[in-house]
Amino acid sequence: MTPPDAPAIDLFAQEPFRGERRRLPLDPGAVLLGGFAADIASDLIAHIHAIAAAAPFRHLEVPGGGRMSVAMTNCGPLGWVSDRRGYRYAATDPLSGAPWPAMPPALLALAQRAAAEAGFEGFVPDACLINRYAPGARLSLHQDRDEAGMDAPIVSVSLGASAVFLWGGQRRGDRAGRYPVHHGDVIVWGGPARMTFHGVAPLPAAASHPLTGACRFNLTFRRAGPARST
Ligand code: MD6
Ligand code: FE
Questions:
Q1: pLDDT tens digits, 74-97
Q2: Could you write out the DSSP letters of every residue in 64-133?
Q3: Ligand 1: which of 32, 68, 128, 131 to mutate, most ligand atoms within 8 Å of CB?
């Protein structure tokens, strides 16, 4: 990803909390942890590039036809995939037939620390979806409902260019709040907020970040399979 020659207008430059270490409750069971991953963010991006070398980003087909504007790959035991037949988790990459790349310990540890910080102790994710947004890419409001157990939270890490996270309600028609998310921000939702509708507004044309160019990456950690007995 090559940054543009001319500095892009930074639409988020005026945003007062950019990069700040703060805690913003969104709802009971949901919190935005500003800057929580900032100190290891460049390592996380290096891991993303290594994972994508083995399991490339791709624009998945959706059941209704067409392809997602967000490019995706996965690491960990289970990966989220979509095709004409529907959405599901799979243990292997449909492109290669091979297992998804292993979840790097640094990613697992971050997800566990963030979940604990939000009040969800003992989170053991078995899936890490990696999203790549280019300008114009978006994710419309949806619930995450393809997981076997809904008792585990979701941990979502923003990297690179800033975006606007849409945080809705328990019904599709509920008005959604707009929350800027910056490099290193983490959002955790679970418990009473687990089924909240959420999405990402189209990445602005002027999106830019020193480490990722015009790209936003997002790591979404979930427990997709049954809880493993210990
Ligand atoms: C994000 N992604 O990219 C949030 N959910 O910031 C999601 O909420 C998501 O990318 C379900 C399936 C795929 C996703
Ligand atoms: Fe989602």
A1: 999 999 999 999 999 999 999 999
A2: TSSB-SSEEEEESSBEEEEETTEEEEESB-TTTSSBPPPPPHHHHHHHHHHHHHTT-TT----EEEEEEE
A3: 131
